[in-house]
Amino acid sequence: MKLCMIGTGYVGLVSGVCFSDLGNDVICVDKDLDKIQLLQNGKVPIYEPGLSELVIKNYKNKRLKFSNDLKKSVIESDIIFICVGTPTKKGSSSADLSQVYNVAKEISKSINKYKIIVTKSTVPLTTGDEIEKILQKKNKKNKFSVVSNPEFLREGEAIRDFTYPDRIVIGSNDKRSSKLMKSLYNPLISKGAQFLLTQRRAAELIKYASNSFLATKITFINEIANLCEQTGINVEDISIGIGLDKRIGGRFLRAGPAYGGSCFPKDTKAIVSTAEKFKINLSLVKSVIKSNKDRSKLLLNRINKILNKKIRNKKITFLGVTFKANTDDMRDSSSLVMIPFLSKKGALIKYYDPTGSKKELEKIKNVSYVDSIKKAVESSDLVILHTEWNDFKSINFKSLSKRKKFIIYDMRNIYSPNKIKNQGFKYFSIGR
Ligand code: UGA
């Protein structure tokens, strides 16, 4: 099939590349010419394991193209995916849909034959209805269908998540488009992926409800971890103990710092805001948002306690600053709350991240990037394991602490408490 992905951000690029790998002809469109030229030279602007290899392979065999000509790309395609950003609107908690609607207006000028317009961007309930209205202004109803096909990729695991999805959700209000969408996904369905066909609005809501539920699960175990810390219980026993109940499930029950990233914080706020438009109070999701916001403060209090309330002039190291491993993404990372706070309190902060230094931390006083784990930890007072990169899992702390014994605060529970304590370190972790 001939596909066009509008927006070469995370969702558009990953799914475009993966669709081309399944044998489709795909044009990835972006108005950012620099990005397009970078991609045409086989360079990928985001960090995602395995993506670069797939870009090069499919670009070489000409199934994958990159263009900044939206009009031409739409005319040449049968299915057009809208994959532009839907960030939180400034000064509000709802999603900013201006990019989505602008793209819909552009598409509406280039519908030369029947096309399916698909929202893959995370868009609130009823966005499809609005897109349909925009398209109807210039086109007859039988010339297009508007479909919702939410994306459930995780950063860092995106290629695997695309290739082996738990489910494929298509929200369509007509048979013609649902049939075509199903055949597009047939290579994945025939390998065992569940296919769910719903009304368009339902698919839109499934995306937000999924992210809100996952955020709730994480927040729940984080709160239980607080209780474990006060009672000498290991939160990991609780995660296993409740997760073995199939109705609960063991995944997304890892306690840690506040959840972050480009999706959970934004989408939980947006679903609350959408519900308010329909006069529905999502009190549970509101509590999750608050609890997650409070979590960084809570962990900062713990740091204060660990350092006997003496943060000033303490050398603090962050191992990993991204919101999770296998990504260079800093969006809503809890490090962006903790590092500025500790710097304000007079700490001297070094950080190391496998994806390099971060512009978000450049201007913060007494914060510097170092390019190795050794340099980061050797003269430190407190080492905070913030992100669970594999690179940090087998650090030989003993050999790195010859000059000085530091305290370790493992916010992802990646080390064995006994092993680390037996090496003579003061060791703290989450919920155990
Ligand atoms: C999330 C969802 O998992 C994807 O299904 C969804 O497609 C995506 O948002 C999106 O809407 O685009 P992502 O933001 O890439 O994916 O990252 P996750 O792996 O879900 O992690 C989000 C945050 O939760 C991270 O800060 C992570 O450290 C935290 N987390 C996750 C925990 O603290 N504990 C866990 O058990 C799992």
Please explain how this structure is put together.
With 432 residues, the chain is an alpha/beta fold. The protein folds into 2 domains: 2-198, NAD(P)-binding Rossmann-like Domain (Rossmann fold, 3-Layer(aba) Sandwich), CATH 3.40.50; 199-432, 3-Layer(aba) Sandwich (Rossmann fold), CATH 3.40.50. It is built from 17 helices and 14 strands. It has a 6-stranded parallel β-sheet, with helices on both faces. A 6-stranded parallel β-sheet has the order 11-10-9-12-13-14. α1 (10-21) crosses α3 (51-60) and α5 runs parallel beside α6 (127-136). It is globular and about 70 Å long. The termini are far apart. 43% of the residues are buried. The mean pLDDT is 96. The structure holds uridine-5'-diphosphate-glucuronic acid. Residues 122, 151-155, 211, 214, 218, 252-254, 256, 259-261, 263-264, 323-324 line the site of uridine-5'-diphosphate-glucuronic acid.
Average pLDDT over all residues = 96
Count of discrete structural domains? 2
* Alpha-carbon Rg, integer: 24 Å
What order do the strands of the largest sheet run in, or round the barrel if closed?
Answer: 3-2-1-4-5-6
Helix content: 40-55%
Characterize the biggest β-sheet. Answer: 6 strands, parallel
CATH class of the largest domain: Alpha Beta
